[in-house]
């Protein structure tokens, strides 16, 4: 019987991301890093979440390329995963366990200085939009720390998705946030 109970674990361990040596896991206890790689409409992004050693939250490293110069692209954590069809519309609304949007009564405006006014998943609202660095570059890169987000409990990013929007809120690119067992230093 013990052998049978081990089989799912062995099957999961066999699924290793090519070239990265990372093992996906759904168990938050083992997750040290989680990555989403949204792509679509000529945009390729990566959002990496790393558990901070002091337990205060997550480090986020964000990259994107294929951005049009001077354009502001909002991006968020959306509640639902991306289905196999790849339809970004199926990811639903933003991760908002404290119902910041509902409490704002239709006048939602995220004030980064008062993060309780922001949906937990409103990364663009709290930390700024994706926007090309300028001087002809289509790339963007930033890093920041979140004391709100976690791999555990109600503010966990696991099982959710990242969506990159056009300025008119159209959904351009999306991907699931996948947790991994071992920290990786590549984006
Ligand atoms: Cu969004």
Number of helices: 3
Question: If you average the pLDDT, what whole number results?
Answer: 87
| Small molecules (ligands, ions, cofactors) in the structure | copper (II) ion
Reading the helices and strands in chain order gives HEEEEEHHEEEE
Question: Which sheet architecture does the biggest sheet show?
Answer: 6 strands, antiparallel
Please provide the count of β strands.
9
Which of globular, elongated, flat, extended, rod-shaped describes the shape?
A: globular
Give me the Rg, rounded: 17 Å
**Remind me, CATH topology?**
Immunoglobulin-like
Portion of residues within helices:
10-25%
Count of spatially separate domains: 1
Q: pLDDT below 50 for ≥5 consecutive residues: which ranges?
A: 1-19
Tell me the fraction of residues in β-strands, as a range: 25-35%
The top level CATH class name: Mainly Beta
Features:
alpha+beta; 3 helices; globular; six-stranded antiparallel β-sheet; SOD-like_Cu/Zn_dom_sf; Immunoglobulin-like; SOD_Cu_Zn_dom; single chain
Describe what this molecule looks like in 3D.
By secondary structure, the chain is of the alpha+beta class. The chain has a single domain, classed as Superoxide dismutase, copper/zinc binding domain (Immunoglobulin-like, Sandwich). It is 12% helix and 26% strand. It contains 3 helices and 9 strands, in the order H-E-E-E-E-E-H-H-E-E-E-E. Strands 1, 2, 3, 4, 6 and 9 form a 6-stranded antiparallel β-sheet that branches. A 3-stranded antiparallel β-sheet has the order 5-7-8, with no helix packed on it. The protein is globular, with a radius of gyration of 17 Å. Residues 1-19 have low confidence and may be disordered. Copper (II) ion (CU) binds at residues 76, 78, 94, 163, 165.
């Amino acid at each position: 019987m013990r052998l049978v109970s081990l089989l799912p674990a062995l099957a999961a361990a066999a699924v290793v991301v090519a070239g990265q040596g990372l093992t996906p896991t759904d168990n938050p206890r083992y997750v040290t890093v989680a990555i989403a790689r949204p792509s679509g409409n000529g945009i390729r992004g990566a959002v990496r979440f790393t558990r901070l050693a002091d337990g205060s939250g997550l480090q986020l490293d964000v990259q994107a390329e294929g951005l049009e110069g001077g354009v502001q692209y909002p991006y968020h954590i959306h509640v639902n995963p991306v289905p196999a069809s790849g339809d970004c519309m199926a990811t639903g609304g933003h991760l908002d366990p404290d119902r910041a949007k509902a409490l704002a009564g239709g006048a939602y405006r995220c004030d980064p200085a008062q993060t309780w006014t922001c949906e937990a998943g409103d990364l663009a609202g709290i930390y700024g939009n994706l926007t090309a660095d300028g001087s002809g570059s289509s790339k963007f890169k930033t890093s920041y720390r979140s004391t709100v987000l976690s791999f555990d409990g109600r503010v966990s990013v696991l099982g959710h998705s990242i969506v990159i929007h056009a300025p008119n809120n159209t959904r351009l690119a999306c991907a699931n946030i996948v947790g991994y067992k071992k920290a990786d230093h590549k984006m």
